C-alpha cells in the first residue's frame, strides 16, 4: 500500500455530499446535512461525533442499507445502492444481530452460505474466524449462553469469516466492560494489520478513536457535517499500556476533544497551528 501523509492515495470509498432527511408521520428530521470524505484501500478511519449526530444513519447509507436523500456513496468506483458484496457491518446491538436459536458456529456460517461457498470452505472460515477472536471452543454454544463481550466477538467473527474488503463498525464496543473493550480494540487493530481490510469505525469515544485510527474524522452535531479531519501520527505498533500515556496521544485526544466540543456548540473548527490536520492546511 502506498501512503501519502499517512493515507492511501487511491480512495476505495467515497462519500460525497451525503444528506439524509427522515420523513414520516408528520415528522421531518434532517439527520445528515452534507458529508464528504474518502477512505483509502486498507485505511483505518474513525468517525467520532456526539450522540444523535447521525453516525448510524451515515453508516447505514455507506452500507447500502439506507438510501440517502441526496449525494452518493461510491465503493471501488461504483455507486452503492444496495449492500455491496465485499462489505460487512458490525452493529452496536449485537444481541439483536445474532440468531438466538442458532448455535454460534451456524451464526457465523450463515452469511457464507448466502455467499454460496462450499461446505468445506465454510467450515474452514468459521473455525479460523472463531479462533481469531479467541472463541474456538464456543462454536456449539448458543449466543445467549455467552457473555456480552463474547457475543460481540461472535458478531466480529461473523464479519471476519465473510472476508470483507471493507468493515463497517458502529460503536461496536459501547456495551461491554472496560477490560473487554480494550481487548476487542486490540483484536480489531490486529486483524486490520494482518488482513489489510479497510475499516470505517464509528464511535463517540474520543480516546478510542485516537487509539484505533490512522485518521479521525470529527462530525458536528446534527444536522451533520465534517468538522475536522485529523491524521493520527502515532506509531503503527500501539498498545493499551504505552500508547494511551504517550504525550502525542494526549495532544491528539485534546485536539479531537476541542473539535467535538466546538461541534456541539455549532462553532467553526478550532484553529491550532501546531496540530497536524488532514488535508494539510
Ligand atoms: P447517532 O448514531 O450518531 O447517535 P443516528 O444516526 O442514530 O445518530 O440519528 C441521527 C438523528 O436522526 C437523530 O436525531 C435521530 O433521532 C434521527 N433518526 C435516526 N433514525 C431515524 C428514523 N428511522 N426516523 C426518524 N428519525 C431518525
Ligand atoms: Mg448510533
From TrEMBL:
Keywords: ATP-binding, Nucleotide-binding, Transport
Residue ranges of coiled coil: none
PROSITE patterns per record: ABC_TRANSPORTER_1 (PS00211), ABC_TRANSPORTER_2 (PS50893)
Name of protein: ABC transporter
ABC transporter domain residues: 13-246
GO molecular function: ATP binding; ATP hydrolysis activity
The keyword Ribosomal protein appears for this protein: no
Species this protein is from: Streptomyces minutiscleroticus
Gene: ssuB
Amino acid at each position: 500500500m502506498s501512503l501519502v501523509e499517512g493515507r492511501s492515495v487511491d480512495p476505495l470509498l467515497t462519500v460525497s455530499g451525503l444528506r439524509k432527511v427522515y420523513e414520516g408521520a408528520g415528522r421531518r428530521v434532517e439527520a445528515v446535512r452534507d458529508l464528504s470524505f474518502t477512505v483509502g484501500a486498507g485505511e483505518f478511519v474513525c468517525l467520532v461525533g456526539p450522540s444523535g449526530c447521525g453516525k448510524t444513519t451515515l453508516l447505514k447509507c455507506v452500507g447500502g442499507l439506507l438510501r440517502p436523500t441526496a449525494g452518493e456513496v461510491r465503493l471501488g468506483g461504483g455507486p452503492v445502492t444496495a449492500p455491496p458484496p465485499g462489505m460487512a457491518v458490525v452493529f452496536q446491538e449485537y444481541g439483536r444481530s445474532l440468531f438466538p436459536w442458532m448455535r454460534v458456529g451456524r451464526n457465523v456460517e450463515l452469511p457464507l452460505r448466502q455467499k454460496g461457498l462450499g461446505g468445506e470452505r465454510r467450515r474452514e472460515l468459521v473455525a479460523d474466524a472463531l479462533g481469531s477472536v479467541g472463541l474456538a471452543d464456543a462454536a456449539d454454544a448458543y449466543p445467549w449462553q455467552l457473555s456480552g463481550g463474547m457475543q460481540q466477538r461472535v458478531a466480529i467473527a461473523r464479519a471476519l469469516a465473510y472476508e470483507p474488503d471493507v468493515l463497517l463498525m458502529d460503536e461496536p464496543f459501547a456495551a461491554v466492560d472496560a477490560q473487554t473493550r480494550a481487548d476487542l480494540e486490540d483484536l480489531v487493530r490486529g486483524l486490520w494489520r494482518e488482513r489489510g481490510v479497510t475499516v470505517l469505525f464509528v464511535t463517540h469515544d474520543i480516546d478510542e478513536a485516537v487509539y484505533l485510527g490512522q485518521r479521525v474524522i470529527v462530525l458536528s452535531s446534527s444536522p451533520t457535517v465534517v468538522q475536522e479531519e485529523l491524521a493520527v501520527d502515532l506509531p503503527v505498533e500501539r498498545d493499551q499500556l504505552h500508547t494511551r500515556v504517550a504525550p502525542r496521544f494526549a495532544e491528539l485526544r485534546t485536539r479531537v476533544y476541542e473539535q467535538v466540543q466546538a461541534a456541539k456548540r455549532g462553532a467553526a473548527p478550532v484553529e491550532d497551528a501546531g496540530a497536524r490536520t488532514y488535508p494539510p492546511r
